[in-house]
Design a protein that fits this description.
Bound molecules: iron/sulfur cluster
Strand order of the largest sheet: 3-4-6-7-8-9-10
Number of domains: 1
Largest sheet: 7 strands, mixed
CATH superfamily: Aldolase class I
Number of strands: 10
CATH architecture: Alpha-Beta Barrel
Shape: globular
Helix content: 25-40%
CATH class: Alpha Beta
């Protein structure tokens, strides 16, 4: 494993928040994709004047991988649409992130508030860009970067949807890397409640690894922050959000992988919710244009090791939940009074 310096997540997050938000004018630093490596992987060219992209979310992740029902099933449920295995989603990214996951499909230049690839926009301007598109997906994903460095973004965006009578026609989804508690620090309790109560808003938090060592390997952040992810997820559940999990299982070693996975699933059940493993989707990591040139031999190996890890995950779930419970839709795994 490399011994790169550990990111000081607290300091770096505060610095990026200052660079990624203009509170007075309610502007957020949004990624402009033109000329980026990330854009090379798009199946459709960037839209919304370069500030948006259309993503095809697919349920099938490959043989022997659990299917990925996020955000497909929560969105279809809210919009009362019939089942399907692929969903078109309008994505916007904020241009800052506190971590540097080696497998990130976003160029690191698009995570560091680089003015070459970003501009400040209000939610009103972003929605104007979306509404000017001839083809508009009914699902909008505020992604990153790390949207929760500027939790005002999701709230302002939801307010703007209400203002335009779109809040029950569009499903809003936000991604979170579970690196900070800014949601509770910078939004008022009534604002959090309003978002959490919406039937057309869902969110996902990503667990980066299955133990402190894999977390450090994946994010370049301090391994002690691994446990914080469970605490933050529990707060999201307790705040009443319709919240789901992703997990990435890449690591540079497969030593004791089954034992580590057992403890990981124990923690999801004990520290978040008994049913939370069934609201969590292991994400398959593949190579992307931004990662190809920067991957080390350990990272190449991690792509193989995740296969062993996901087998261990599947065995754990099969041992803990009956077929009937596992078969239920991810949206029917009830964890709060949503
Ligand atoms: S937390 Fe997400 S956006 Fe940030 S580096 Fe990791 S994968 Fe990329």
């Amino acid at each position: 494993m490399d011994l790169l310096p550990v990111i000081d997540t607290g300091k770096f997050s505060a610095h990026l928040r200052r660079r990624g938000l203009r509170l007075d004018s309610r502007e957020v630093l949004i990624t402009k994709f033109n000329g980026s490596k990330e854009a090379k992987d798009f199946t459709l060219p960037p839209n919304c004047q370069g500030f948006g992209r259309i993503h095809h979310f697919r349920r099938f992740q490959g043989d022997n991988w659990p299917s990925n029902s996020l955000p497909i099933d929560p969105a279809l449920k809210a919009l009362q649409l019939p089942p399907r295995d692929m969903l078109l989603v309008q994505v916007f990214q904020n241009a800052i992130c506190s971590w540097r996951c080696w497998y990130c499909f976003v160029d690191f230049d698009l995570l560091s508030a680089n003015p070459r690839f970003s501009e400040f926009k209000t939610c009103e301007q972003i929605l104007d860009l979306y509404l000017a598109e001839p083809e508009r997906p009914l699902v909008i994903d505020l992604s990153g970067g790390q949207p929760d460095l500027v939790p005002e973004w999701g709230y302002w965006f939801y307010q703007e949807l209400i203002k335009r009578s779109l809040s029950d026609q569009v499903y809003l989804w936000t991604d979170d890397n579970l690196s900070n508690d800014y949601l509770w620090r910078f939004l008022k309790p009534e604002q959090i409640n309003e978002l959490a109560r919406s039937t057309h808003y869902g969110r996902v938090g990503c667990f980066k690894g299955y133990d402190p060592f894999s977390f450090r390997f994946n994010t370049k952040a301090a391994p002690e922050l691994f446990k914080q992810q469970f605490h933050l997820m529990r707060r999201l559940v307790d705040s009443g959000f319709d919240v789901f999990g992703y997990a990435t299982f890449t690591n540079s070693t497969d030593v004791d992988i089954r034992q580590h996975m057992r403890v990981f699933v124990d923690r999801l059940q004990e520290e978040v919710h008994e049913l939370f493993p069934l609201r969590t989707v292991p994400l398959r990591i593949t190579r992307f244009s931004p990662t190809k040139g920067r991957m080390t031999s350990d990272e190449e190996r991690a792509i193989e090791i995740q296969k062993v890890a996901v087998e261990a995950w599947t065995e754990e779930l099969e041992g803990r939940f009956t077929v009937d419970i596992r078969k239920r839709s991810i949206t029917e795994q009830r964890i709060n009074n949503r």
